[in-house]
Amino acid sequence: MKPFRFLVLCLAFLTGVKGNDNPVTCDPNVHIVGGTLTKSNGNEVNSVLKFECPDTQYPFPVSSAKCSKSGHWFRSFHRNITPTCKAFRCPVPVLEDGMFLPVNNSYEINETITFECYDAYELHGSVSRICMKNGRWNGTTTVCNSGSQHCPHPGIPPGGRKSGTSYGIGDKVEYACNGGLVLVGSSKRECLESKEWTGSEPNCQHKSSFDSPEEVAAAFTASFTNLLGMTRTGDAKNSDTTARKIILSKDAPLHVYILLDASESVGEEYFSEAKNVAENLIDKIASFDVWPRFGVISYASDPVVIANLYDDNESSADDAIGLLRKATYEIHGDGRGTNIYAALKKVFETMVLTKVQFKDSWDKIRFVTVLFTDGKANMGGNPKAAVQDIKDFVNAQNKSEDYLDMYAFGVSDDVYMPELNDLASQKPNERHCFKIQNTSELVKSFDAILDFTTIGDLCGVADETPDAAGRNQYPWHTLVEMVGTGKCRGSIVSPSWVMTAAHCLTDGKNEVDINMISVNVGIKNKSFKVKQKHLHPLFDLGAMLSENINQFYDYDVALLELTKPINFSETNSRSICLPCTRETTRAIRRKFPGTSCKDHELEMLPTPGPVQADFVRHVGLVESMVPVTIKTSEGQRKACEANALQAPEYKNVSHVHLVVTDRFLCTGGHEPVVEKVSCKGDSGGALFIQKKRRYIQVGVLSWGVINSCDNVALKEKYARDFHINLFKVLPWLKMIIGKIITFIN
Ligand SMILES: *[C@@H]1O[C@H](CO)[C@@H](O)[C@H](O)[C@H]1NC(C)=O
Ligand SMILES: *[C@@H]1O[C@H](CO)[C@@H](O)[C@H](O)[C@H]1NC(C)=O
Ligand SMILES: *[C@@H]1O[C@H](CO)[C@@H](O)[C@H](O)[C@H]1NC(C)=O
Ligand SMILES: *[C@@H]1O[C@H](CO)[C@@H](O)[C@H](O)[C@H]1NC(C)=O
Ligand SMILES: *[C@@H]1O[C@H](CO)[C@@H](O)[C@H](O)[C@H]1NC(C)=O
Ligand SMILES: *[C@@H]1O[C@H](CO)[C@@H](O)[C@H](O)[C@H]1NC(C)=O
Ligand SMILES: *[C@@H]1O[C@H](CO)[C@@H](O)[C@H](O)[C@H]1NC(C)=O
Ligand SMILES: *[C@@H]1O[C@H](CO)[C@@H](O)[C@H](O)[C@H]1NC(C)=O
Ligand SMILES: *[C@@H]1O[C@H](CO)[C@@H](O)[C@H](O)[C@H]1NC(C)=O
What we know:
Layout: H1 2-21, E1 36-39, E2 48-52, E3 57-60, E4 64-66, E5 84-87, E6 98-101, E7 112-117, E8 122-124, E9 128-130, E10 143-145, E11 160-163, E12 172-177, E13 181-184, E14 188-190, E15 203-206, H2 213-228, E16 253-261, H3 267-285, E17 291-299, E18 303-307, H4 317-326, H5 340-357, E19 366-373, H6 383-396, E20 404-411, H7 417-421, E21 433-436, H8 439-448, E22 477-482, E23 486-494, E24 497-500, E25 517-521, E26 526-535, E27 558-562, H9 568-571, H10 582-587, H11 597-604, E28 611-619, E29 622-630, H12 634-642, E30 664-668, E31 686-691, E32 694-704, H13 711-715, E33 720-725, H14 730-737
Parallel strand pairs: 16-17, 16-19, 19-20, 20-21
Antiparallel strand pairs: 1-2, 2-4, 3-5, 6-7, 7-9, 8-10, 11-12, 12-14, 13-15, 17-18, 22-23, 22-25, 23-24, 24-27, 25-26, 26-27, 28-29, 30-33, 31-32, 32-33
Helix pairs in contact: 2-8, 3-4, 3-8, 5-6
């Protein structure tokens, strides 16, 4: 060893001498026409030069260069070309058995092209496409299909070519892209018996083009909701995506591995942004109707496990997020290579371990990997081999492709798409591989993904963006109108069921005829009729007449069954979550099974409070969400309840507990802050709290001490509201809607 080391030192010494004699530097005057540049280390050897161009342009002939030992920024074949920012142009489409207009050898941004198929051929994909600012056509590849072969025509991407013209079972087609374009998607596809092609649609992209945050969000959301087996409401942008064959059932286990790049080139700042993006992703996935476990790995020369998927104390969304927040860029020390292979190998090893640990649910587990990288793997072997290990392992378990989704996000211009493409899944009509310009674009992309206000039918979800207003903030809120006699409010608890106050439906002697009830939902105030009403059997307005109490509101709760279910997407409405249900257990991210109704109560109505809550108030025609606090500590609750005797109807009542039973929650007053109180007609509305971005109803507004809700009421310390506590009427709720909503014990 010694002599060898000596030799190395000698060589270093020699080159050092040579360097001092004749210092090599690169041309300091290099520039780019129409753009800007940055250099990592001035004009020294190995300094890296990066060109930047405006949004709709790319640097030509190269986007980056390194100062070579011979003192040149560019390789010989680029030396005579002045670096210039060139506008992206879209490649020429290829359409067999049809035509398109206009015809040209490339197209400018904003140019539109329209397609037509010859007689007897049917057009699939986009009829017209517009050239987007990143040099890609919007929409999907246009195909003319005759229907005469087993599989449909597989299409040819603009800027590409196809070999193979037979589309029978087992026939293959191959794709390549024209010069300067790189292929993303599957380069080979095979016609299956099911009349589908294997893999995903190929695309030919300009090597310098990026996915916009909108494209990333739309494509990732489409693929991920497909994986979750969910329907998208609102403006479903990619409604033509085919659904997966195997639908993820509610409660299905989902194992999500997130891999973060911490190599030298990403730097500390990127790493911390990537952590935020990962947290955002975990938070969103955990909001859906699945039971995910998370594994988080950061990698540089070596992988470091931040949250271990097979540890119960690390793999829940909250635990993984906690661990992720604590992880620092420093954990990788000086080993700052980009070893994607080792990171994926770690995923593979964890998967093998989980097979032992989760053998009971093994058949149902779906795997998702989300890889973030800023460039090429530069050590540790070809990551493709580790991907193959993972694929082989999942296949060997007799799991279909539907059980594994591998997403790859490349952030920066250094990302080479064909390489990244190999690390992602290829599935029909879905995208798993993305190239994003910089971290701020990555953050934007993830802010826009998996917007659960437009996905699925989760309870207790509301639009919380800053410009959300009215019913979008509380989409479960309804008007319950007793035509000709009065108005109350209610809350949607399932598509066919609305909860309200029992006193709205009776005057103590006669109950309202169901034909006279109309329930109005959503921002368009769509009206529904009622099929059945269920007042709590213990509700009896006149039960205390012998005590000279004319109105007694214990058990003031009722459920209405509608004649037809509310279409949530059509009416822009949704259900609110109810306590002690399975769905709410999931919403608050507690274990199922393993979480009791008592756990829900401790979490939602903790003592000592006060507990932050809201209800919806109506002042004239103006409807708004109003914050209040529920008094849960004994002292505050007693003070709150004592004010019940200030109500005009209760002036002669000898003891407050004659009118305020254990079933009530108390809000309002001046402690700890001055709170607004309900108005006439607010009765029946929900008192709700928020947990993990989800809303859960804990009470039904029954009555208030003061018969007004204006500023006069604000001045009165004894202005209080009383709500029926849903935790106290669970057996009845279970009896009426237990078949529709799963309650826990
Ligand atoms: C092709 O595009 C160029 C540049 O946009 C344009 O000048 C030319 O007229 C087009 N040719 C045809 C045939 O439309
Ligand atoms: C394309 O059209 C949009 C909207 O019409 C416009 O804002 C943009 O400047 C156009 N881009 C180019 C490169 O012509
Ligand atoms: C492509 O863009 C045009 C213009 O913005 C739009 O009208 C069209 O619907 C888009 N097509 C698809 C498939 O998104
Ligand atoms: C989780 O439990 C494992 C042992 O099963 C332990 O090694 C690990 O440190 C724990 N992690 C945390 C974050 O407490
Ligand atoms: C997969 O299925 C084949 C044939 O049905 C069976 O022989 C094999 O044991 C199965 N493998 C596993 C891991 O379940
Ligand atoms: C990231 O890219 C976008 C889109 O080109 C650009 O507008 C933005 O300034 C870039 N941000 C940074 C921090 O470079
Ligand atoms: C909703 O419609 C009902 C009648 O169906 C009406 O009484 C009520 O005022 C309407 N509410 C709003 C907010 O438009
Ligand atoms: C619900 O409404 C949406 C949007 O109007 C519609 O596409 C869908 O078919 C409706 N669903 C049902 C079950 O009626
Ligand atoms: C309270 O008692 C007085 C005197 O008996 C009676 O006049 C009044 O009507 C009672 N008020 C109520 C609300 O019952």
